């Protein structure tokens, strides 16, 4: 079931600063507050929230455990099975993705990837009675310890991930791209990997060197992109403090290589922590076309990168108290209400 209620005056996209289950909204037009944390114009007070790149929010009520997808523009909802076995912090810090748009078909997948060192994913289809839990195995690596201490083996985890043409692509590297597929008739999701040509062209048109960077995957205009944020500092403690430059690559599936690009087809890419990456038509929604926006709650800042010119601007926000999470509220297609009416 779904419901909708028009919410006039909420211009999307906008930034949401979430703290202690309350949410303050920041306009992208003038970088001022649309609503203070206590206003609750979205009805999200005391809720656990996880955004998606398609504009819908995964929301859970901690009292009733009712779980649903919410369209923040019109308050349209799609009920999901109660997500009862996931702690609030796991839900808030996780990454939620939707396989299709609209998202109400029986074969559409709602996917929740646990963050940090966890190797669990949760998934369901609209209309299911419960969520399915799956522990994945995509290999491991050795962490060398100094002196006489024994080296530690650590499991690989899903980091950057994006939905593209009904599948989920994740952990892009110079020579490999992983795939998570729910489209087969297998009981469990199918994991695979694509070999990528890691040759770096002399003219820089394709390939890249694996420098110290943070990688995001973004679906935009029917293409799969990789955004690499290259840090000024290589110190892990300072890694989020300042990003020196951005490079953007488009996946050429026929040639199996990452092609360097210097425009985003007029779109704007919106990034935030926990490997969230989304695309929005820039000029249509008051953003700068061919720019990458990255928000970091640790520094209460927004960095805006011009992909064409290779320049960037830094905007500081004065948010108090310190927020737990900053994320994007995005425009979403009017697909929920129509499919359920």
TrEMBL record:
InterPro entries, A to Z: KIB1-4_b-propeller
Residue ranges of every copy of the KIB1-4 beta-propeller domain listed in the record: 43-306
Protein name: KIB1-4 beta-propeller domain-containing protein
Species per Swiss-Prot/TrEMBL record: Urochloa decumbens
């Amino acid at each position: 079931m779904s419901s909708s209620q028009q919410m006039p005056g909420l211009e999307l996209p906008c930034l949401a600063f979430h703290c202690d289950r309350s949410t303050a909204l920041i306009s992208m037009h003038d970088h001022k507050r649309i609503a203070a944390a206590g206003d609750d114009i979205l009805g999200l007070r005391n809720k656990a929230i996880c955004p998606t790149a398609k504009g819908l929010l995964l929301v859970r009520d901690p009292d009733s455990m009712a779980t649903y997808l919410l369209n923040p523009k019109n308050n349209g909802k799609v009920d999901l099975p109660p997500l009862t076995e996931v702690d609030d912090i796991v839900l808030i810090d996780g990454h939620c993705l939707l396989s299709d748009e609209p998202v109400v078909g029986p074969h559409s997948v709602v996917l929740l990837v646990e963050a940090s060192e966890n190797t669990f994913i949760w998934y369901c289809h609209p209309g299911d009675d419960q969520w399915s839990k799956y522990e994945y195995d995509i290999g491991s690596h050795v962490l060398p310890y100094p002196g006489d201490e024994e080296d530690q083996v650590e499991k690989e985890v899903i980091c950057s991930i994006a939905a593209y043409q009904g599948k989920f692509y994740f952990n892009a590297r110079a020579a490999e791209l992983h795939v998570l597929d729910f489209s087969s008739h297998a009981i469990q999701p199918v994991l695979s990997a694509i070999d990528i040509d890691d040759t770096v062209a002399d003219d820089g048109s394709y390939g890249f060197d694996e420098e110290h960077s943070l990688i995001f995957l973004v679906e935009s205009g029917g293409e799969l992109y990789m955004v690499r944020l290259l840090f000024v500092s290589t110190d892990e403690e300072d890694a989020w403090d300042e990003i020196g430059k951005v490079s953007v690559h488009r996946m050429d599936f026929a040639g199996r290589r990452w092609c360097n690009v210097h425009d985003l087809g007029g779109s704007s890419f919106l990034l935030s922590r926990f490997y969230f990456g989304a695309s929005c038509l820039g000029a249509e929604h008051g953003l700068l076309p061919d720019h990458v926006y990255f928000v970091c709650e640790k520094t209460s800042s927004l960095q805006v990168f011009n992909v064409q010119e290779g320049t960037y601007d830094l905007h500081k926000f004065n948010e108090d108290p310190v927020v737990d999470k900053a994320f994007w509220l995005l425009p979403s297609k009017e697909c929920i209400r129509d499919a359920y009416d």
